[in-house]
Amino acid sequence: MTESAVTEAGITLITPCRGLMLPLEEVPDPVFAGGSLGPGVAIDPLESVLRAPCAGEIVRLARTRHAITLRCEEGPELLLHLGLDTVALDGEGIELLVHEGEQVSVGQTLCRFDPELLAQRALSLITPIIITEDEGWQIVPPTEDKLESGDVLMHLKPVASASSSPTESAETSGPVLEATLVLALVNGLHARPAARLRDIATAHSCRITLQHDDDTADAGSLTRLMGLGLSGGDRVSVRITGEQSEQALADVRALLEQPELSEAAPQHHNNGPWLDETAAEENDASVPGRLAGLVASPGLACGPLQPLGVSLPEIEPDARDRDAEQVALQQACKALQQQLEADIAEARGAQRSGEADIFAAHLAWLEDPDLTQRSVRLIEEGRSAAFAWRDVLDTEIKQLAASDNQLIAARASDLRDLQRRLLLKLLGQEDDPLDLPRGAIVVTDEITPSQFIALCQTDPAGLCLAGGGTTSHVAILARSRGLPCLAAMGDRLTQQAAQHEGASVILDGDHGCLELEPDEARLEQVQSVLEARRIARHEARTAADQPAVTRDGVTLEVAANVADASEAEQAYEQGADGIGLMRSEFLFMARESAPTMEEQRAVYQAAIEAMHGRPVIIRTLDIGADKALSYLPLPAVANPALGTRGVRLLNAHGGLLDDQLRALLAVDAPERLRIMVPMVTDVTDLRAVRQRLEILAAERGITRLPALGVMIEVPAAALSAASLAREADFLSIGTNDLTQYTLAMDREDAVLAGRADVLHPAVLRLIAMTVEAARGEDCWVGVCGAAAGDPLAWAALAALGVNELSVEPARVAEIKAELRSLDLSALAKALPAWLTLDEARAVRSALGDWLANSNEPKEGQS
């Protein structure tokens, strides 16, 4: 039997049992395959014992007997993990023959096991052998696939320790805090929150580690954090070391214990059904000439079919000069870092915040020390920098793509983007310009975010993807640019694209299908629809500055929902009659402390000036539930949507409210300013804010106060509308929350989102009750929820008697045009009967039919 040897040349480990050796990345478990626990190899046992691969000390035995940790003499710790998912057996079928603290010799039997029982009841008998303390050691695996007991398993060669990550170097002094949290992120610990966790560690100069089951990850490595595979509801242990550990723990709680503001999940069309992922299933993919897909971005398009092939550049596998290859990797990383920073700045300058956030996540991944350290190890083994980078990211891409969490799986495309862009930097190459005809329907397996932006420069009509999904970053970009896009269309798409290249096809992004063989009549029909839509958009935009007066002479205001002054400028340019909702919380988010009073005043003043005399409604800070501040941690509660949020939070943190009210009182032209209070339950909430406003105004000698109104977001507020209208200067209905609280359906729940419809009779009755009560008190009523821009719901809201519809800036002209074509009094007469229907679907159908049949003016009307 071969003895292990600890020499200057390193350590030789023997195989713990006869079996078949396989690389760790081929282990059918992403935690091991992705290297989250460390590097190593794996064995598929052909006998029923495990032996010590080296002499050393048993430092840890799992309670369930499936894992043994052995510290080598003068070397690292090894983890021998018997089988996969064997922890669920609770030790059944496994007999330990050693105890913790025991000194063992090389080849000593550590445990016996029943291979038949484990093979039947566990995921696999494959046994990983992991170097859990890999710093300073380089693995040289065996060259043979089949190993006998006592054969050499691997060599460990000493190497200079890789530089630690910023968070790892912080664990030098300071208090240690530990906590067990329940992950509230619905989509799990994916790229953006993982990057935020790393930022918290950096900002507070501390080390943060997360542990879930047997897996531990340092916040300095996005790769290892995501390798934990954490999903919503998982319990995770957090350990923080550093002088600012208390502040860091508060930030970590705020990040992990509250649902995030979801940007990636596709939104239903203002409570309508057209982004429902069941759309693809409702289209019969077996119909000849038609392929179904998920609607990543809606819309209708027609054009020549153009396949797009994207491949990685050719590389040399071996290094000629290892030192030179490491320098090349560093320089390429630096160059790509600068490029990504430029991409972020350009996107933000063009007011494409979603695009900027995507590249910010790519930048955080590029700075992940785990990826570069593993690449350096391969370079030290004689591989070229390009080969090393490609190989390391291939492993991570496979792990992400295999995740059951759709959002995490969708991030594989982002790593492919990072992989390809750095390879091009390493090779001194640039992407060739895309040679595509304008107006093409582009077909490809997958496309990365940077490739998508390059594609948009060719002015495509639409995009079809064999892979991807509705939560991918490309889907987000397609929606933001208004490009019709279908995803997850499968291998048939690639096969059919080759047969139909250059042919005129139709991408129906409203119904989730690609028509490959439309006849001339169908093509002419779609072209007519597209031309009519183009003309309607042009005419609507031309008349956008004019009032929205219905056919029967009723004038409604059409305002805009904005987040900052730049969006207010867009709203004015689009013809908005005012700002119906400025969400002030975006001024408070993505920073380490609350904005000063002067910072706030400047932003509010800029928004008012951008509207050139038109009214501006600014909502006071609306934090809680799905929005959190790192510097204002909230207690963990079972149901944050029903907890301290909106005005409840402001009343609990009076300093925040006072600073915001002082900033609002300090703006010029207060007659154009209206202040709106969110999450009001009854008149008590309004009185508390008005009292603070009057006290602060008196301190400054202000006698003319801005108008003060409330949001109607909960059923209690709608039922109390009469008393609220007596004391409020205006009411504004937040249909998103009112719908979800009335129906007890989370609008972010993919299963329920199709039913969480503002046109449900119960929701419409509450809105009708609110409007009627306000009318009795001569109180103005607006709607600032998503329903104001819904293709059908806006008409029902107008018929119920609201005074204003506030929509996204790009929708202002279209809504005004639709209002001008509406016979409001006729619709108001028809609406009460629909409020007695059973469900939203019935109301939506009846309303749609009515609008379709009432487009032509009645006799005597112009």
UniProtKB/TrEMBL annotation:
Keywords: Cytoplasm, Kinase, Magnesium, Metal-binding, Phosphotransferase system, Pyruvate, Sugar transport, Transferase, Transport
Compartment list: Cytoplasm
Catalysed conversion reaction: L-histidyl-[protein] + phosphoenolpyruvate = N(pros)-phospho-L-histidyl-[protein] + pyruvate
Cofactor: Mg(2+)
BP GO terms, sorted: phosphoenolpyruvate-dependent sugar phosphotransferase system
Domain of life: Bacteria
GO cellular component terms, semicolon-separated: cytoplasm
Main location: cytoplasm
EC assignment: 2.7.3.9
GO molecular function: kinase activity; metal ion binding; phosphoenolpyruvate-protein phosphotransferase activity
PANTHER family: PHOSPHOENOLPYRUVATE-PROTEIN PHOSPHOTRANSFERASE
Family the UniProt entry places it in: Belongs to the PEP-utilizing enzyme family.
The protein's name in its UniProt record: phosphoenolpyruvate--protein phosphotransferase
Organism, scientific name: Kushneria phosphatilytica
Organismal lineage: Bacteria, Pseudomonadati, Pseudomonadota, Gammaproteobacteria, Oceanospirillales
Gene field: ptsP
